[in-house]
Amino acid sequence: MKKLLSGLALATAFATAGLANAADIKPTVVLVHGAFADSSSWNGVVKILEKDGYPVIAAANPLRGVSSDAQAVASIVKNIKTPVVLVGHSYGGSVISEAAYGNPNVKGLVYVAAFTPETGETAAQLSGRFPGGTLASALAAPVDLADGGKDLYIQQDKFHDQFAADVPEAEARLMAAGQRPVTVAALNEAATDPAWKTIPSWFVYGDKDKNIPPQAMAFMAERAHSKQTVVVKGASHVVMVSNPKVVANLIEKAAQ
What we know:
- Residues 1-22 form the signal peptide.
- Keywords: Hydrolase, Signal.
- The chain has helices spanning 2-16, 43-51, 66-78, 91-99, 123-128, 135-138, 156-163, 169-177, 184-187, 214-223, 239-242, 244-255; strands spanning 28-32, 56-59, 84-89, 106-112, 143-144, 150-152, 182-183, 201-206, 229-232.
- The chain is an alpha/beta fold.
- The chain has a 6-stranded parallel β-sheet with strand order 2-1-3-4-8-9, sandwiched between helices. It has a 3-stranded antiparallel β-sheet with strand order 5-6-7.
- It is globular.
- Residues 1-5 and 14-21 have low confidence and may be disordered.
């Protein structure tokens, strides 16, 4: 919460500083994590962006459902007085695609190893459309929720290889212990009005991703007419953790 408030305060300060030239105002970067991760997965990217003068908010993604999660992110975006670059990782891509719709201050979308669904598509459908994904075999037994839903986690002993193979093992163990679950319903909720159809998009992903097949991400990037697509050799699903500079550089290009 402290990080969110400081990010909002910085964004407001940029907007009200009375700069002579509006072009001098840097966009606010809003980072949205995906399933089995949390906002700390952006730490390396945040350090670089803040050093380069960008106001940054690493939003907490509830991971309960595409529509409700998008509403939570959209509420943050609507309260920012500068232009915004929305960045989503994994399932977070589905969320930013919905959250940006109808928000005129969003100037760019950056998809980091992320889903970019068309109307009616789900994350589950897209991940199974091309070969190479092994997430299903790494999941733990679903956790029953009081509302009748089910939460999904990755088995901790399989987390490193499945999710973060190019991250040091000790760091991956911490990520596994602190992973945030996603509901089965969220991964099977269809997209409605994807903003990538009207807002410019950029893509970055690793060619060793085991959660979302690289072929699927190449397909989605091409379909969205990506302004630039960066494929990181040897990178896992958490390319922003293992290669924060590459990801931050692409975000800054989208912010220009």
